[in-house]
Queue: 4 jobs
Job 1
Amino acid sequence: MQRSRTIFTAAALSTAAALALTSCASGGGGGDAIDPEADITEQSLTVGIWADYYPEDIAERFEEETGVPVTIVNHATNEEAVAKVTAGGDSGIDVLFVSGQYAQALNEQGLLEPLEKSLIPNESNLYAEASELAYDEGNQFSLPYAWGTTGLCYRSDLTGYEPTSWMDLLEPTPEVSGKTTMLSTERWLALPALKALGYSVNSTDEAELEEVKEQLLETKSTLLAYDDTTFYDKLITGEASLVEAWDGWCNYAIAESPETKFVVPEEGSDLWVDSMTVLKTSQNKEAAMAFLNFVLEPEQGAWVAENILYKVPNEAAMDSLDPALFEQFPNMAMTPEELAEQETIIDLGEYSTEYTRLVTEVTAG
Amino acid sequence: MSSRSTAPSPGARLRRGLAAAPFLAPGGLLLIAFVFIPIALVTVYAFFQRGRFGGVVFDFTLDNFVRLADPLYLGVIAQSIGVGLMVTAIALLLGFPTAWVITRLPAKWRTIALIAVLLPFWTNFLIRTYAWILLFNNAGWINKTLGVFGIEPLDLLYSLPAVVVGLVYMYLPLMILPIYSSLDRMDPLLGEAATNLGSSPFRVFRTITLPLAIPGILTGCVFVLVPAMGNFVIPELIGGGKTVLIGNLVRDQFLKARDWPFGAALTLVLTVLLLILLAVQSRVSARVTEGPGRRG
């Protein structure tokens, strides 16, 4: 009796503590309104960005230029970044890098500050196409940092032919069967089948997703693996000969084995964008705008292109690159017109759970 | 039992309780912070609705538990239990003889053998998992060696058997160590006495060694079964993402689907399974160690 009462008390106490912890998850106010005349040298910045996705000395360079000290906090995924800024209160982050559809979702929640363009004159370095992105027309609350598409990355010496269609991946020839991989992140796992069947990458049609599921279940038996992180290694070792890949990551395989090629299938693909945003909770909004402006300088964009091998929407940066880079990595030479022909992935709100379910049904099936 | 075990007066009990408090407080706080609060959070979250960006919206619902009954998720849970049991059985078959052999080694070699069992545990788990990939992939050492003899590369990776092998490797030390410790505590004179009285080695094993090792075996089984069901890295890396275990489902709810309440409900399933296993284990070991004859 004594013991069970103690356990009950402990359980009650910890439940109360748990509720107390979660109830402070709401609330948190906004920062001040923007004052273009503010002295930013009085401010300091915290920037949330993906690890290994920026020049190592970016903080020093920005401080040298503007006098604003910068602290960088890394995140590994969009979900982690979003969790940080929606966990409640002030995350302490001023500038957050997330993919376009996540910026859209954050903005719909009222978490992003509208950009003060008078403080970001370098926006003029961007291609015209970079201000017509479906998740944020006119770059109201986000500015693109890097962009690209998804396609087929393959070893022409192993496939023996040049794939041109998503069907080359979904229904591989006997020689390639068992040597293909698909991305495992939900929207990209569904993408090849959606596009091959002629549907939108943002489809919210139940019958369409059902067809996609049938196709993906059929494809599963021909796959080596679902792989988001090491598919280019599998190409290099020759374990895989044809994989679904993000363009930039395919370049990592091209760098190691020159027989590797990248193609955007004829049925079309997506346009993904990694973007920069300023949080409403920021107390340093003027410095944050100055940081966005700084990143849009051609030097920073050129660094990303040369080191991460991602395309950047920064015309001035792309023009400054050594043409040898385009020769070695042909997909770096894709024009903004070619990219803009692809479909931009947007956030599907509540419907996104259907994609989670689809992926679970396929991978567990 | 001596007279000291008679109940003390209430005053004495209180005084003794107060004196013990400073010693119990650190452990108690640790338990509350790292066991009770997290489990309470998981339990509470499982009854609410998902927030759009993860987290929870405090509207009470039982939907998360209704969803668990969906054949899709029941299938994953069943598959996890199946894989977990298979891993445990293989680990037991490999672990028991290993532990037994170690107890028979001279003292110096015993230490070396135990360090050898433990050594992999001090290496990062991801590095060890990638080592399996390097060993087993089509361009890996095993297939390269086979290739020298003109044998076609074997598809060793990215399948359910590969996941089972990876999990057995990962958790085998957790089976060996508890069995070793229960065998090590066994009085060797018991076996000698039985042999002197004419028992065959098999009979000694069946009637003395095995029963005395049962607490260790049960502990080892729980230690292996529970993490094997919850592991999500090995199915993803060695299984090529084509096998989904309950650990993958939980991880995906938090990191991909942003559905914390359903993730919490799935976690509760694992927790309840664990509690049942622990209850069975302690019940059985108590019966074995006390023995039916000595009770009462």
Job 2
Amino acid sequence: MLLDKVFPGGKTEQKVIDNIKKHIKTLCSASDCFKRALEKRDKDLMFCVPDLEREGDAIRREIISTIYEGAFLPFLRPNICRFVEIVDEAFDVLEDAAHEFEYLYSELDKEIEEDCIKIADMNLKMSEMLFIAFETLFGKEDIREKNLAIRIYENKIDEIKFDLTEKLRRKEVKNFWEGKILSDFIADLTHVSDVIEDASDYLYIMNISLR
Amino acid sequence: MKIEEIMVKKLESVEANAPVYDAIEKMVDRRIRSILVKPKDEKDVYGIVTMRDIVFKVIGKNLDPNKIKVEEIASKPVISIDKDMDIDHVISLMNKFNIARVFVSEGKEIIGVASLFDIMGASLIEKARGGHVA
């Protein structure tokens, strides 16, 4: 609704909006694929994440180019570009976690694995909620409640992260790289939600600035 | 929505004959306000010790938590609900018994716990999703 007021149905603007939706949906697909690979302990399936990240990169480039071609009023352009870049950062962090999963020395302990799957599932739900939040910019629904839902997910992930850190401290590792890769994997997996929360907050700010 | 979908599966428990200090340590470490008390034997049932029990029954009476056993201050049996129970029903039960969290059971086994905070969060998320499929 708000963005509709700012651009009266321009073709380039519509192209940007469609691509942003595609960008977030690609993030949902990458999160879903990550979760399934983790559940199946399938390192080959995890390759879908870098593939989707590259797809996301291409969409991001197209969005930025279209904006610089003149889509949207100048005061809006930096905000939209920043939002897209934050979503892209979520892709990057997820991709890092996917690579680290591939390099893990051994299978995850059962209790650590359960927590990781829970986090991956919540990352997916958060990216779905980000898509819903973006759509509210064009509807009558309140973006505030979508933003709150994302913050609730993020708090839950923080709680699991606290437990995971405890478990990791007790875990014996054989060498430096085994410990580093496992630690980096958990750090990146739990960081995805922070970035999605940032994107949601930015969307909320954009919503206020458009009023 | 069923309670099983929102319950927390991670349960912290303490032995019935352990000192209250053990329960305090676990509650502080895990940042929780109540802890499940395991049954002593097959005939016994699960109980619960809350922060209120510890403050009012031990600390407030200047008793030594190392000398009091968990079972002395625990409430038994613990109120538990079936994992298939609907959230609306759970809310009315929690309201009726004035409790902030319920344990979730499958048969005789306690499999999770749900607090008012979990229920509030789940309801807000469900409302925010509003039937959307991304």
Job 3
Amino acid sequence: MKKLLLITLTLLALSLPKTVMAQAEPDMRVNSPAITELREAMRGHVAQLRPLLESGALGMKMDGSIAVRDPAGVPVAERQKLAAVINANTRDKAALYREIARVNGHPEWEQQIAETFARTLLRRIPAGWWIQDNNGAWSQKQAAAD
Amino acid sequence: MKSDLSGRRVALLGQRPFLLPALMFALSTALSACVTINIYFPAAAAEKAAETFIDDIWQLQESPGQNDPQ
């Protein structure tokens, strides 16, 4: 009888990690009042940045932030406003990754979330958009070969 | 009959000294697994979240060769 109890306890102890692991990869939460605000702000940035990304005046860095590639492609009167939008976008992205890490209960995930978002964004932008590598060199995104 | 049973109970741990270490091993495995989970980054879930968020913001199509619908 006692042996049976011990075996049951042992099996229970062994199955515990599996139970916990099964619950350890739920969807990552991407909602909170702060995230909703950031999402709205970033929609506004995208509306302003998209035409210039398509024209090649702007490009993306490897961290997913926006950089000016060809200043001549931006009307002088709009340069200051554009710089403000780019700065706001960079700031909001950082805030977004920090907030996602926080609402998921792991502030230490911030950097990995940032890397995941940057990688995903660069994968999803259309061919022809400009990307700046970590040495500062620009190249146009090639169409995926698959 | 009853005393015989309780006698067997007392003898159980003595006769099988491996039972206690086995139980402790199982428990420590379970506990260390919990610690591992705490530092584990859910890469697949993060990527899914990134795709959903970025598609929502940027309205981009991943399919190659296709221009942005805008």
Job 4
Amino acid sequence: MATDLYVHPDYYNLDDLLTEEHIMIRDAARAWVKKEVSPIIDEHYEKATFPKHLLKGLGEIGAFGPYIPEEYGGPGLDQISYGLIMQELERCDSGLRSTASVQSSLVMYPIWKYGSEEQKQKYLPKLATGEFMGCFGLTEPDHGSNPGGMITNFKDAGDGENVILNGAKMWISNAPFADIAVVWAKDETGRIHGIVVERGMEGFSTPEMHGKLSLRASSTGELIFVNVKVPKKNILPGRTGLGAPLSCLDSARFGIAWGALGAAMDCYDQALRYCKERTQFGVPIGSFQLQQKKLAEMITEITKAQLLTFRLGQLRNAGKATSAQISMAKRNNCEIALNIAREARQIHGAMGITSEYSMMRHMANLESVVTYEGTHDIHLLITGMDVTGIPAFTREMSESK
Amino acid sequence: MKILVCISKSPDTTSKIAFTEGNTKFDENGVQYIVNPYDEWYALVRALELKETLGGNVTIITVGNAADEAIIRKALAIGADDAVRIDADPKDAYFTASQIAKYAKDNSFDIVLTGKETINYNGSQVAGMIAEELDMPFISLATKLDLNGTTATIEREVMGGVQVVEVNTPFVASCAKGMAEQRIPNMRGIMAARTKPLTVIPVTNNEEYTAYASYSMPEAKTACKMISPDNMDELVSLLHNEAKVI
Ligand SMILES: Cc1cc2nc3c(=O)[nH]c(=O)nc-3n(C[C@H](O)[C@H](O)[C@H](O)COP(=O)(O)OP(=O)(O)OC[C@H]3O[C@@H](n4cnc5c(N)ncnc54)[C@H](O)[C@@H]3O)c2cc1C
């Protein structure tokens, strides 16, 4: 990629609503990304390799569990800080943000919220620095949008100390290199529990999935459990049922809403610069109304999304954001980001399809972002249910004739 | 080793530059300030490196108002131990230098470092004036600084080469590119900065010897003029008569 000149658009002076510390955290994350990630991200994307050497740096800028309290090794920041860090990471690449989201919201969050004191002490400080990496196993080959149908399960080993875990998870970010996996599985009564599975446990493997044309700089794999003996003390005691993993998804989706907006802002920033620099027919292409329309619509959507996202941050800080409110932001921001990536790419003409610019990479990445953590359709159904009070997720199929 | 690093603010390089009050004042409206890069990347980071190897304390000082505390927190997040803000809108180089010199005299430092200039005013005067007020040696535009006991070996870039200077502490030096590498504050640093001491002290001296008469913007870039490759004479004449570069 060419030199990273990113400056974030702030049409409604939203920076005025941030604290001095928010800005310092955001700027530090941005400076780190420009120095360490922008110069190498394309190569990793092209080769489909995960830049593992960045993990320590991600820990240092606070990207792993920014809201985890200091007593467990986190910096104890607010939700807006979390959002801003995710935004800066995804501004560069959704894969990088995915790694940080999973670590923060899907691994550290459940351990912090539902773990025993011993589990928190054992895992959280090392997860905060990136010394330990984690992954989150919810999706299964046959259960994506409907995770409640999962078949991964555990039974009492009969030795008083362990359970025996069987099943398989698919599409799991960070799986191939994770030290621990927070796995959601059913007990003998069909109740869902979170259980921490450690690399090295017999019968546990994490094959990498290949052939992704999206999120290529992020590593995705399977989690396979064949009679894995897991100590009972690895079960998260604090909460059971589908609500437990769904609450983690709330936290992650909140980060994604900020992140996807970051990708949109990056695309707009490049498109605006290109419009002023590129001349055709003797004038900058930004002097054509058709290009101005694209830019004007992009900045309008970005500004609306910034306001939505910031307000969601306030609500989440106050502990008042509903799952449905988070769904709306995740859905909206992924959609506008995808649209903006496409429009920005068109503004760049042929140059837009090269790795010299990031739009094409963002566009392909965002296809994963719009799918994981609840597809675009599922979030629409969540909003629909929230406003009508009528769930429309399942339907009876009439007998085929 | 007690080191004082002088920190100034400067507008983010992407800021729109405009003037008010009949072009006599910089328009701060909507301007984001950063720590002047020469102060941050070179003076501060080298001071921290010296402290990390030799022990001691790094104090940062700025002449500015309460709004400037954001840049102070950043310098603290990067690693300075404590901070001093002299509560005034800096007026000119002498005004700034005399405030800092007064503080430095009362608190005796082994080394006083500044950036070689600010990227907005490019005055390069404050460090020399501080040295004069403190009656200390001054080394400008330092690109390397090593310390052996109380003797510092300092490199300066001069026309066509490098000059090596030896000087004993205490001294004042202004730092240029090459002295150190930028440090990005990490989360631990940002958290630690919350509780590091920041002392605000009143102005001691209100003398100012200069006033800004007016500012103007550089001439806007004009369109590129294309000259046919076989028309050398026209090119030469334009370079000579219009651009006046040959
Ligand atoms: C790169 C990547 C990383 C991922 N990382 C993780 C991870 O770390 N951990 C994890 O657990 N999972 C992860 N996932 C899985 C992701 O969460 C699922 O892919 C997602 O939930 C969708 O499930 P599915 O792919 O099985 O699609 P399906 O559920 O089969 O959906 C297929 C289509 O049907 C639609 N559909 C489904 N149900 C309904 C309905 N009721 N009404 C209307 N339309 C419906 C969907 O919207 C979609 O368009 C990841 C996925 C990707 C691509």
